[in-house]
Structure formats: structure tokens, C-alpha cells
Amino acid sequence: PTQSEIESRKAFRLSCVAAEAIAPGTVLTAAHLAFRRPGNGLPPKMESALIGRITKMELRKGDLLRWEQLQ
Fold it and tell me: Which of 5, 13, 50, 71 could form a disulfide with 54, with the two C-beta atoms 3.0–4.6 Å apart?
């Protein structure tokens, strides 16, 4: 694939984001998760691994979820 095709693929992939504002110490549920473009965060296939994790910090609606933010 060309460089532009590789960049386009990234733009169309999805990432896990906070569906709403989430306070520190919150146990994540499916209701806390949404999936948005671009795909430069955790992919949607990680949803089951995220559910039940506890947040270490405040997350704003739309923030990309990263492992460093979770216990």
C-alpha cells in the first residue's frame, strides 16, 4: 500500500473514548465507552478488557482511553 493509503486506514479506524465525563475511581462499564475516529487509541476489540477497570484520573467526554489512565 502507498503512504496515503496507510494514512487513510488510520483515519477510518475507531478508538475507545469516554462516552461521558468519568471521575477518578470509577469502575468502567459499557455505558462509559464509545467508539470514535481516528483510530490512534485503543481499538474497539479491547472493550471487554476495559470493562471493570478503575480510572486513575478524571476523563472528559471524548477523551481517548489509554492503559496509563486505568488500574
Answer: 71
